Amino acid sequence: MKQLIYADYNATTPSPRGHEDQVFEILQASFGSPSSIHHFGREAKRLMEDARENVAKLFGAERKSIVFTSGATESNNFCLKGVVFQHFKKGERPHIVITNSEHSSVHNVAKFLEGYGFCTVTYAPIHSKGFLEKDTLLSAINERTVLVAIIYVNNETGVVNPVEELARAAKGKKPNLHVHVDGVQALGKLDCTWIGRSVIDSVSVSAHKVGGLKGIGCLYKKPEVSLLPLLHGGGHERGWRSGTENMPGIVSFGLRAKAILERKEPLNHLRTLWNHLVERMRVLPGLEIHGDLSRCLPTTLNFTIHGVAGEELMLRFENAGIAVSSGSACLSGGSEPSRVLTAMGYSRDVAANSIRLSFGEGSRIEDAEAILAVVRGFVQKKG
Amino acid sequence: MKQLIYADYNATTPSPRGHEDQVFEILQASFGSPSSIHHFGREAKRLMEDARENVAKLFGAERKSIVFTSGATESNNFCLKGVVFQHFKKGERPHIVITNSEHSSVHNVAKFLEGYGFCTVTYAPIHSKGFLEKDTLLSAINERTVLVAIIYVNNETGVVNPVEELARAAKGKKPNLHVHVDGVQALGKLDCTWIGRSVIDSVSVSAHKVGGLKGIGCLYKKPEVSLLPLLHGGGHERGWRSGTENMPGIVSFGLRAKAILERKEPLNHLRTLWNHLVERMRVLPGLEIHGDLSRCLPTTLNFTIHGVAGEELMLRFENAGIAVSSGSACLSGGSEPSRVLTAMGYSRDVAANSIRLSFGEGSRIEDAEAILAVVRGFVQKKG
Questions:
Q1: Is the Cβ of B231 closer than 8 Å to some Cβ of chain A?
Q2: Which residues in chain B are closer than 8 Å to A84, comparing Cβ atoms?
Q3: CATH architecture for residues A19-262
Q4: Which of A1, A231, A356 to mutate to test the interface with B (most CBs of B within 10 A)?
Q5: Is B330 a catalytic residue?
Q6: Rounded distance between C-alpha atoms, residue B282 and residue B301, angstroms
Q7: pLDDT tens digit sequence for B186-205
Q8: Which architecture, in CATH terms, is A5-15+265-382?
Q9: Using 50, 70 and 90 to split pLDDT, how confident is the model at B29?
Q10: Is the ipTM of this complex over 0.90?
Q11: Which residue of A has its CA nearest to B324?
Q12: Cβ A215–B330 below 8 Å, yes or no?
């Protein structure tokens, strides 16, 4: 069989060799539920707290800042609904601000809250190069604003938002609002250990984007921040998130957190690959790379070739054995024009025909050559 | 080290030997996200749909009846909130009925919905022997009732509710209400393949109660039943539950479903063990077993010894190397008097000092003897 190339790391990442074995070797200490007070429970709890400690360190924070969830989608739902419902209960009609280029697990939560009348929403418009500007954010905040949600690294374009600066500015205007950051595409790529000392109130992440198992993630939140739980029940996770804890997931996340903390400069080899691609692609006639490349992580490259259907490109990549994504692969089977590219001012045509390449630990410079061969085939054919 | 005995199967169950290896062997076909349309995604999707098929068969239902969740707590939250919010949005003030002996993941959801004014709740009182009677249920239903939630097998007592009969009666009085069943402690113990043909609208289950991984479960629901999603986002699970799918969990659940379907009479060996215990314990002075033993699954035995503190019993079991639970172990670290026993009319004293023994595939007749030795020690000491 032809060697397959995976260039869809922003969707999900493979685990390092032996990772699953390591998880279940650790879990042999106990199959128990960490809530049980007997031997089997206590052993499980110890494993869980070891993992929590490592995950907390990713944020430069204490263990009690980490609430394990089923992933970032749950974390985003938990946070946005948790903040809004608490204000709604007090009889207020709260207002929230999200950028108009959030992941659907923030965007669609806002749409729900707005549609049901639980709050009003301002979709703060991003710059045409893909990032949110401070003044835009500040002008969206009003006296009813209770929450601001900003994506750290955009999942479609790789453009980085200056979340610390934006958070400070937002708090400067309204100190008691909640600043939430969707950190999914930042974890393991950018240092996040400053977050525990920052004004940011909460951050969502998923383990499977950094080589962990699917189905586990967390909400980092400042210990003093109170949220209405999304999952009510037996009071697990110190009351923040009920449900028997996903032990394989938690142990996996802890292992990956430890590996990330020990790794230096994770992006160096990707920078070489990405530069190689960008230099060669940007000169091709009709090919456009989206987003401000100086603010882009070298994990993501989003482009269109004018006059070429995204579907056709996808098919050609598929035939060449290269797995890429059209728009946000998190949009289950969807082929709507990209909301993110639309927010950047691109036409419906561009937004519906974009391709996202994304890279990770297993990506090789040879992958770039295979990708370039596909892309050049189109440009030459067209020319 | 002393051989440890596990008698807390209702809290969680160990996986069969080799189960995890089997899960990750299957997952070698792809690490992709099932939502991705490339090769890696399609392979993952195939594995997911194979698993869904097996899980659906547990309910005698089609694949599209199964919505994978992070477990029964999420499923219960999803269902109750999903039904109530839809009515709330229409400007109604809906009413729901739950028994007063539901698991906390139903009870505390109802408390939340009530406390926030989204609906009113009737907590239908169970019989002193632990089950819900038809007339009690019917008298709790009124013209505003939109949902009835009934636990199938009680997690603390093992008492079985006649859910089919109760569901029919409820629908007979108000055809368009939603009948939800918490099936966590029934799965793998009672045949559930009749549910797909019944009037029951939805059922919650968790895989870790039947030897699967922790962190995965599902909501079975009739395909025509519409619910507001609990997790908004990318539209996974046909729009019912967003978030990248927990592939290890899903594959694990599929394997366990298949094993359950192929197994005959799972309770036979437990019946022998349970009868052995019940015969010897019920004659001990001051020892009381709770619940109607003729309606009890031979998986669970809930008792108190009058005048003996639950804590003291727990400690003695612990020292004997026997893992048991006080009240509902799902109540993370809690030592409140059992809500279920209180609902059965027991005093606060009894409800705070009960012990739950629960058994499963790995339980042996010798476990009964070790348990009896502990219990007899107390009764003799007392006498």
A1: yes
A2: none
A3: 3-Layer(aba) Sandwich (3.40)
A4: A231
A5: yes
A6: 11
A7: 999 999 999 999 999 999 99
A8: Alpha-Beta Complex (3.90)
A9: confident
A10: yes
A11: A38
A12: no
